[in-house]
Write a structure and sequence with these properties.
By secondary structure, the chain is of the alpha/beta class. The chain is built from eleven helices and seven strands. Bound molecules: uracil (URA).
Length: about 270
């Protein structure tokens, strides 16, 4: 092997030349020891199952038992998504990030995918985009803890640049592979209406591409009858030039205000 890399006559020029003879002499013995050792397991990687199937989600119709059923089902969902390898993203993320909020929230906000901080903390919208969303909700006096906040894709997709993990937009195929987890979340939480934050969420919730900049602030109806308010993703606002940010924020708040109106009206549209 070593002779393939460098002919023997040059070995004596190497600074580590004195180590070669004893290492070569013990090579066979060291290989046998390594083969005999049991395999190591990764420290935090979650083993995959075939499809990460969800455990039974039986629910009673009302009362504390129903709530317990929903909690159990959401926990099962977290567990199943942790093991999901239906697309390649899960292999590299720290963990899956499921939604957060009250079990029977009337509003469900859906983003794209967890970011770097969400991936580490295990909670959606806790990084810079989440802080912007919080500011908008505060302006509307809509308490975030009354809203169920989740993402279309449950794992963080990124590329490494040095030590930094840079967000990468999930492909349509990856978002489609994740869709059944989101559908299951909607089924469990039973919100009165949905808010799509950005194009990935809008496509996941409606099943077709929505030109978000043109259609923002409008309600769309899903095949199951649920209404979806479409608006920009808060990260899009963060990327805007400073002189446009204030107006963009006001527009974002205006869009989300429609969801608040829906809650105030007490009925779905
Ligand atoms: N962007 C998202 O779409 N979701 C998060 O949870 C964080 C950032």
């Amino acid at each position: 092997m070593m002779q393939k890399e460098m002919p023997r006559k040059y070995w004596h020029n190497l600074p580590e030349a004195s180590l070669i003879a004893p290492l070569a002499a013990r090579a066979m013995q060291r290989s046998s020891m390594m083969i005999a050792q049991p395999a190591t397991t990764p420290l935090r990687r979650i083993p995959a199952t075939a499809t990460g199937t969800l455990a039974a989600t039986a629910m009673t119709p009302t009362g504390p038992q129903a709530a317990r059923g929903v909690i159990g089902s959401l926990l099962a969902l977290k567990d199943a998504t942790m093991r999901c390898r239906e697309c390649p993203i899960g292999e590299h993320a720290t963990q899956s990030v499921m939604g957060h909020g009250p079990l029977k929230a009337r509003l469900m906000f859906v983003g794209e995918q967890p970011g770097d901080q969400e991936d580490l903390r295990g909670q959606p919208f806790t990084g810079p985009a989440g802080q912007l969303l919080d500011r908008a909700l505060e302006k509307l006096q809509l308490p975030r803890d009354g809203i169920y906040v989740t993402n279309a894709v449950k794992h963080f997709k990124f590329e490494l640049r040095g030590k930094r993990r840079i967000h990468k937009t999930p492909t349509q195929r990856e978002a489609a592979a994740c869709l059944h987890w989101l559908d299951e979340e909607i089924r469990l939480v039973q919100p009165a209406a949905l808010v799509a934050l950005g194009a990935t969420a809008a496509r996941a919730l409606l099943g077709y591409a929505v030109p978000v900049t043109a259609e923002r602030g409008k309600w769309f109806r899903r095949a199951d009858g649920l209404q979806v308010l479409v608006t920009l993703h808060p990260s899009a606002l963060l990327r805007m030039p400073p002189e446009e940010k204030e107006e963009a924020f006001d527009d974002f708040v205006r869009d989300l205000g429609q969801a608040r109106e829906l809650l105030r009206a007490g009925t779905s549209l």
